[in-house]
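Board notes (copied after class):
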Amino acid sequence: MSKRVLAIAANLALAFACLAAPVARAQDSVEERLSYDRLAPVVPGVYVAGDRIGFSLDALGGEYLLRMDGTPEVFVLYPTRASLGSRVLKYDSGETALRVAGWGGMTLYTDAQPGGLPAVRTGDSVPPQPPSVSLSEMQAAAGDSGQRLGYVRHLNLSFTADWNALASDSSLRAFAYDAMENAARGIDRFASFGPARDALAKRVSVVSIQTNSRPTIAFNGRTLIVTYNAGRGFEGRASSRAIAHALSTSLSIPQK
């Protein structure tokens, strides 16, 4: 074969290589985009993480409800996109609760296992319902919460609400009770070490549960006002994690 023929062949090979490169890059780009757009499926159900931690996950519109075995609290989780089609489900406090990989694998993150534990679905779950309590039961729970925080955290706190308004409205009472229980758990979580407990003891003597358009906390003298919106259901009250986080921010005490 002549040198001229070899040169032509080489030039053609180079030309085809140059044409193939953009096509390959375009194909990779399409595959990456499809991978990103193909969001990980979040399947409701009963799960076990690390062979020992049980929890339930249920859909709530575009959000999800998380319940850990052995605890009464219902957490609302908010999904966000992550790389390669995975999704991260976060508490209302901003912390990560679950990560679902693009291929469907799920990881649970806890305070004791911040590195995460693989979770396996074991069955179907029953969506949680609003708590059903009478006025006297809620008032008794308010007294119990104050006594428990006094015994465990050495805090002198009382819980109160608009008992007259709650007496005749079971729906309002259900989420007022839920907001109160979450507030008590959040205070317990925040006050788990000396500086936080001391700061709270100096600032708060009464926890008042009140209605509002959205869940908030605010200080009025020595009263901590915790608000909720019963019309928004579980989303209308803050979780214990959000309460602890808000107290940390308001009192300038980093969470332990």
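Comment from the instructor: Residues 133 and 174 are 6 Å apart (CA to CA). The chain has three domains: 1-37, 45-123, 135-251.
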